[in-house]
Amino acid sequence: MTSGRSGLARSKRARRIAACTALVLSAGMLLAAPASADEAKGADAPKAAVGSTPRMNISGDNKSDFLYQNRDGFLYLSVGSGVADYPFRFNDPNERTVYKDVIAPGDLQGDGNPEILTLTASGTLTLHPTMGPDRVGGTPTWSGKGWQKYNKVVAPGDLTGDGHNDLIARTPAGDLFLYVSTGRIDGQPFEPAVKVASGWDAYDQIVGLNDATDDGIGDVVTRTPEGDLYFHPGTGDPSKPFGEPSKIGYGFDTYNQLVGVDDINGDGRGDLMGRKVNGDTYIYRSTGYGRLRARIPGTFGWQKAAMFVGAGGNPDFGKRSIMGLTPEGGGWWYDSKNNGEIYARESRNAFHDGWVRVASSLGDDGRSDNLWVHNGSLYIAGHRIGDGWDIYDDLIGPGDLSGDGAGDILARDAKGDLYLYQGNGLGTALAAKVKVGYGYGTYRHIVGAGDLTGDGRADVVAIAKDGTLYLYEGTGKASAPLKARVQIGYGFDIYNKFAAVGDLNGDGKTDLVGVNGYGDLYRYTSTGTGQINKRVQIGYGFNIYKALY
User: 166: which strand partners?
Assistant: First the structure.
């Protein structure tokens, strides 16, 4: 164990990885590809390429575009250097402010225009056709519910060889399901899910490359939390869509996101981009043989993307800021820069009576919600929910604890009993309370705002009065939403304010902050394995606040 004063050392956990034979020589490198007769003609010699149509050819020029969502929830299309990014909107009256994820499967029906899929936190996946050079999304043609059961949905290209691009989706348990395209964008655009693999919880990022081996079949790369990179070749067999994985690199944990960018250099092969925390990007071009070439610099400034379309990490959702509450009741917000730092504060709220907490989003809009208790009544973002809430001394809103896609609330009473209130997905009502624990009165801080363990489920952490830091891993089950606690640190009694603030450094995992007696603000980023990294100071002067959320 390490102290909260010096940070927490990252721990490693066992990983189930198949077919790993390459020798690791040094960090941050690609592994050499095996020799072949074709390669003897030269590393860049083409293999009578079949190639693949770029999935992100939204602008209609047959080249790959970048689509991303910024921190405010707006979508932008980037078509190349030297050209300003364009706002991208859907012709959808039910369009949400912030999508949990956006997936680009490519052209599903063969008309030359790619389709876009949007995913809300409540688990609704919606298909939008695009309108080519107008850079707008058409009226939705299909929606499906229940997709919150997956922690990652990926568009890998055509996995069956029928000329239509497919989807894969992973559960928190690591089971992988294939959704075969029907070639339609209305009715049923995908066949029913079929389980095709297990053990994919070993990977913290899954990236669809499209075709990287010139056989017309989609391929995938995955990364472990330790930074090892694996290539999964597509087989064209819907019953077993991927061949045995091969390790092709290591040290890729230097990137907070890996992104499938289709064809960068015009050879028809899917390429990979890595983004560092500071926003710098690097491109890895495919060799055509299931390997990647040495990286080349991309562009900088990409911390502006809260979410890349085609990114491999689990999407984060619901809270990306810090609120400090003054003794007078003023609320000051610090938004994340998406690189581990925060912007200057802004005044947005005032709470002169009662007490307040900040919950991860209780609706589909992706924004944190204020929980205000005044004269015993609970208000969520201004909506009066009900009376009798003065029996509680703490409220925690870590996100979806029950697995239904709606944000939930935990409430602790004076006896230390813990109750779960399931949300309705709109932030306007709560289900009847269910007791889910006791003995929580021993904690000085209980916080949560997303996933710390890498499974996509909401988790909770708590600091005991002696300064011990505990993790309560989420289960996704309403009847027992939290597993037994696990100690992950000590010495955290130096913090008089502590909060879970969502993702601060762009990797999709929730982070923690604490304020010591001097008013210094420290950040603890998540490893995605249930541990946190060594602390980093990111602010000072926070002793002006009576509480931090």
Answer: 157
Amino acid at 200: W
User: What is the reported pLDDT for 47?
Assistant: 41
Torsion of CA 46, 48, 52, 58, to 10 degrees: 70
Contacts of 327 (CB under 8 A, 6+ apart): 546
Find the length of the chain.
Answer: 549
Q: 5 or 510, which is more confident?
A: 510
For 70-82, letters b (16+ CB in 10 Å) and e give ebebebbbbbeee
Distances (CA, A) of 513 to 248, 411, 503: 36, 21, 11
d(CA 88, CA 136): 6
CA distance 8 to 526: 10
- Evaluate if residue 389 carries a pLDDT over 90: yes
Structure token digits, residue 75: 């979508």
* Amino acid at the residue 267: D
d(CA 381, CA 224) in angstroms, rounded, equals 38
Residues 297-306: b if buried by 16+ CB within 10 A, e if exposed: ebeeebbebb
Closest CA to 153 of 445, 456, 475: 456
Q: What is the pLDDT of residues 70-104, one digit of tens each?
A: 988 899 998 776 778 988 888 877 666 789 999 99
CA angle, 421 as apex, 417 and 427 as ends, to 5°?
Answer: 145
Question: Of 229, 183, 235, which Cα lies nearest the Cα of 203?
Answer: 229
In single-letter form, the type of residue at position 505 comes to N
Q: Which of 260, 271, 211, 261 is nearest to 236 (CA)?
A: 211
Q: DSSP secondary-structure letter at 471?
A: E
Residues 6+ apart with CB under 8 A from 18: 199, 244, 245
Tracing tokens 């100690």 back to the chain, one arrives at 487
The three-class DSSP label of residue 542 is helix
Split at pLDDT 50, 70, 90, the class of 134 is: low
Query: H or E element: which one contains 137?
Result: strand 136-137
Q: Summarize pLDDT for 12-63 with one digit per residue, the tens.
A: 333 333 333 332 323 346 775 332 222 323 344 444 334 467 888 887 777 8
Side chain identity at residue 510, one-letter code: T
Strands (E), 227-335: 229-232, 246-249, 257-262, 271-275, 281-284, 296-297, 307-308, 321-325, 330-335
Phi-psi region of 479 (alpha: psi -120 to 50; beta: other; left: phi over 0): alpha
Please say whether the beta carbons of 59 and 51 come within 8 A.
no
Whole-prediction pTM: 0.90
Distances (CA, A) of 412 to 402, 415, 445, 446: 17, 8, 11, 10
